[in-house]
Specification:
This protein has three domains: about 70 residues, Annexin V, domain 1 (Orthogonal Bundle); about 80 residues, Annexin (Annexin V, domain 1, Orthogonal Bundle); about 70 residues, Orthogonal Bundle (Annexin V, domain 1), CATH 1.10.220. About 75% of the residues lie in helices and about 0% in strands. The chain has 15 helices and no strands. The longest helix has 15 residues. The radius of gyration is 18 Å and the shape is globular. InterPro entries: Annexin, Annexin_repeat, Annexin_repeat_CS, Annexin_sf.
């Protein structure tokens, strides 16, 4: 099996031409160091630079955000500047909910340049200042794939394990299984943070992720996914 960066590069390459939401999920959920490794693998495997292919396949504000997010240098440290956090929260409110017509450039700048810890702190500050959550503001003030990218960045800044647990549950909920999503997430996170995802799944849904995977799949496909979920079983 490929290393995580090579797997991500393949998923993004396919997603950019076939299903942009998949490319958005991968690009916007990775840490800065993971994204750097993805970009190196992408360049090696496909000769193009990732930002060039984003420019070719994405559009509008979503393209601006993805290019900025993939290219920005962000800290992975947990420390945040409380003064800057409050300023960013106020800027997002001023250029979003407070005005008629959203200034998307403010959202692009803050979401692409700030660290995960900083974005999580902005969300907390936003709620304290304006009662409403930043996620709800994003849902109201933006749309389509741009909204999806912003929400992915914010949710993964707060708790990537919870984000992927919810995505996995959605892929198996109701009639039929979204095998593409189920496989993509388990395979791409198996060597990264699958234990955290499993813990969040158990916490939110009250049963092990492996139980639902077992119920929704069969044969060698089931055995493959369960092996990735429980490699030491």
């Amino acid at each position: 099996m490929d290393d995580p960066a090579s797997r991500d590069a393949k998923i993004v390459k396919h997603g950019l031409s076939k299903n942009l939401n998949v490319a958005i999920e991968v690009i916007c959920s990775r840490t800065p160091s993971q994204l750097e490794e993805l970009k190196k693998a992408y360049r090696t495997m496909f000769t193009n630079y990732l930002d060039e292919d984003i420019e070719s396949h994405a559009q509008g504000d979503n393209k601006k955000l993805l290019v900025a997010y993939a290219g920005a240098i962000r800290s992975e440290r947990p420390e945040v500047d409380a003064v800057m956090v409050e300023k960013d929260a106020k800027d997002l409110f001023k250029d979003g909910e407070w005005r008629y017509g959203t200034d998307e450039e403010t959202f692009i700048r803050i979401f692409s340049e700030r660290s995960c810890a900083h974005l999580a702190a902005i969300n907390s500050a936003y709620r304290k200042l304006y009662v409403n959550s930043l996620k709800k503001a994003v849902k109201r003030e933006t749309s389509s794939k741009f909204k999806s990218a912003l929400l992915t960045i914010l949710r993964c800044a707060e708790n990537p394990g919870k984000y992927f647990a919810k995505a996995l549950h959605k892929s198996m909920d109701g009639l039929g299984t979204d095998d593409e999503t189920l496989t993509r997430i388990i395979v791409s996170r198996a060597e990264v943070d699958i234990e955290k995802i499993k813990a969040e799944y158990l916490k939110k849904y009250g049963k092990p992720l492996s139980d639902d995977v077992h119920s929704d799949t069969s044969g060698q496909y089931r055995a493959f996914l369960l092996l990735l979920l429980n490699p030491n079983a």
